[in-house]
Fold this sequence. Notes:
Elements lengths: L1 H7 L6 H14 L1 H8 L9 E5 L5 H7 L6 E6 L2 H10 L1 H5 L3 E5 L12 E7 L8 H11 E11 L12 H7 L6 H10 L3 E7 L6 E6 L2
Parallel strand pairs: 1-2, 1-4, 2-3, 4-5
Antiparallel strand pairs: 5-7, 6-7
The protein binds S-adenosylmethionine (SAM).
Amino acid sequence: MKYHKLVENAAKPEGFWGKLMIRSMNKGHSALTDWALTHVTIENGYRVLDVGCGGGRTVSKLCDRVGSGKVIGVDYSELCIRKSESSNHKQVLCGKAEFRQASVSQLPFESGSFDLVTAVETYYFWPDKLNDLLEVQRVMRHGGKLLLVFEMRRTADDPDRWKPVEERLNIKAVSRSDIRDILLRAGYQNIRTYTKSGTSWLCATAEKE
Ligand SMILES: C[S@@+](CC[C@H](N)C(=O)[O-])C[C@H]1O[C@@H](n2cnc3c(N)ncnc32)[C@H](O)[C@@H]1O
């Protein structure tokens, strides 16, 4: 029962269980995020958007890498925005980090605003994946990069591995070819996928033409 309440709050953290989930995500996704970030170059001055920022741990890691740049986190959960702001309060105060409550389907930014967009363990929940990837592409600059990160990788030899979570949250784990295909359909270029041996981790990088 407690486990189920916690897991259900991965989709949109709210209330008591949402607070616990945010704490658990910040801790549980840290090593996955560090690994995924080794697959992108982040230059001094970059403007980075983290979609589905949860408790803001990825934004904090990105702030350490952008030098004079800026990192913006968006999440449609009000609780996530409040938690992200408090855990990154120094970076928010100096204007290096900012958080906005918004859906990936309607990002409150002008076209071409970001050098890099990251999305850690959030894609499964996006309501209209192809259009949401197009909306993300809209806010990227030409030549800008997208980094999508997954812990729930589906493989042919163990397709039911994530079934209990998939059923509870009404989501689908992602295979290498799923993500490559949809990124191609959305018009992204230079698509690459990476896995880490001994884990279920998967990340994909892609560029806007
Ligand atoms: C499993 S959590 C991952 C949070 C964070 N990226 C991390 O790695 O700890 C998924 C996050 O995506 C957010 N999310 C889900 N669907 C979203 C949407 N349509 N628009 C914006 N955020 C969304 C949820 O509110 C939640 O904070």
